Amino acid sequence: MKKLYIFAVLLLLFSELLFPVNSLAETLNKQVVTDETSSSAMEVSNSTSEISNVAEEASNSTNEISNSAEEVSNSTSEISNAAEEVSNSTSETSSSKELKKSSSPLAGDMTENDITISAISEKDTESSPLFGDGVGYAITVKNSSSSGAYIPAGSIITFTISSDSSVAIDDLLSAKSSSVVNASTSPNLFSFVSALNGVVTIKINENIYPGTSSFNMYFYNTTAQYAENDGTIVVDLKGNISVSKTVENDLSKEFILNPSSVFIKVNKKNTGPVTLPGYVGYGSSDSVTQVLGADNNSLNSFLNSYGLYDPSYKYNGGLYMTFRSTFVKGYTGFSRGVLWGSADKKIPTNNFKLIVESYGTATDITNATGVVWTYTENGAMVDYSEWLTQNGPSMSNGGNITLYTLVPVNAVTDTVTFTGALGWDNFTKWSSTIKGMYSNPSTGSTIPYFRSVGNQTIYNTDTMHPMTGISAYSGSTDISSKIIITDYDGYPVDGKNPPVGNYSIRYSVTNDSNETTEYNRTITVIKNKQSITGFDYTMHVGDKDATTVDFKPSATDKEGMAIAVTADLSAID
Question: CATH code at 113?
Fold first, then answer.
């Protein structure tokens, strides 16, 4: 009976899995305690044990599944929580961006008082009127917004050119693509757009935030003028900036150029051509730099009528300044073409190049057929008439032929005086003289710096004042009047009839900030060997007329070289 009792208990424990309890009781009541019943009970017991094992395994599997489900649930919760955190973070970032965007100053916040523009030229065209050359202005744009508002990219600066003259305004003064020269710190900030009917348009390509930006602007007298009498034409310049604001109306503000008037020279008629077919100028065009093998070191800006150059560029390892004498196609015929270039420095023959620019291409024709050169120690003349006759008609209108003169310079302090000239058709020669010097070596510094014609060699019969060709500057201010000589080294104070020898002269200058700079140059005095001799000649009535040879003359130049002698025999009695 114990076995049956145990069996009953086991059945009760697993009744949820096997069958209802009532059914089990009914079965037990029907059992008879016999061997057969006992055997049956044993079989049932075994079966129950197997079922129990199966149930236990099922239970364990269920527990494992439950645990796995719980882990998945936990992972899902973690992912859900992470997603919520990302969502919250994204919301915060989005809100932060919106807040930052809404609080950032806009171009629309600019006011007229926030913008100041200055335009200053050091060239005095009233005393030296333009005649086929140009004038440069240093343009400074200042954004003084206290809120951080900016002058937006796309804003426009315009220069309006006007005159009471009946001459077409673009013939008097205009601009071209090379007129705009940006500062090295922002090489693409300003760009030339157009020049037409007296309106020159410049575009601002990047936002200008609070601070100062600058560029140089160059205006050209494109056509030399002629009239019944010599004179000048006055051209007026005005400036304006138009700011493209993002809200409200665009902002427009005028500014004054100093000087606001440019003077154009007028020559008397019959002294030259109606239209000048070229010009004398500084530097080289962009398309020519590679052909020359030298960079364009001209800055297209001016100081006291000197064109300024960048001393960082070198040619053949040395300092140099590039000048040009340019013939432009479209104003003359093709029967004759001659260009000249000379300077107050010795120039190697290889430093003269003849370049033709046509249809956007630059070609070196220095050694081309039909090009003939004549050299001196400080200059050259090139006659390209034959080449022009053959090739001129096929050049593009507006194409040009330019004599580039690369003048070697000994020191940053040296200045160069250059004379260029043009000859064409029946007009013998038109010339213009310009000067170049290096820019302030320390941008923004007020420390004085000297500029001069450099070391000089003169003859003992010459007069050269020791202050000749010397100037000094503090920034862009001329302080030459403050120069003193601290050591003459025996050279005459007035520079008259100096003895033969070498003189090292020392100069000093002090600016208003009590900053001092010294400079030294050498003046070499050599003997003048110029001479002329001759002998009396006696003749009798009836003798043949005397000739120069009869007086046995001889002469030498300043260097002692023999030169030919001519004689005026009209006074022989």
Answer: 2.60.40.1170
The answer to whether the pTM exceeds 0.70 is no
Cross-strand bridge partners of residue 462: none
pLDDT, one tens digit per residue, over 164-201 is: 988 889 888 999 877 898 887 788 999 999 999 999 99
| Tokens coding 551 | 């007086």
Q: Is 464 domain-assigned?
A: yes
Q: Which of 209, 237, 271 is the last residue of a domain?
A: 271
How far apart CA 181 and CA 161 sit, in angstroms, is 20
Answer yes or no: are the C-beta atoms of 558 and 528 closer than 8 Å: yes
| Residue 320 near residue 297 (C-beta atoms within 8 A) | yes
- Given a cut of 50, whether residue 516 has pLDDT beyond it is yes
What would the mean pLDDT of 420-443 be, rounded to a whole number? 86
Same domain? 113 vs 247: yes
Q: What is the DSSP string of 115-155?
A: EEEEEE----TTTS-BSS-EEEEEEEEEE--SS---B-TT-
Sorting pLDDT into bands at 50, 70 and 90, what band is 509?
A: very high
Residues 42 and 167 in one domain: no
State which residues form the domain around 11: 2-85
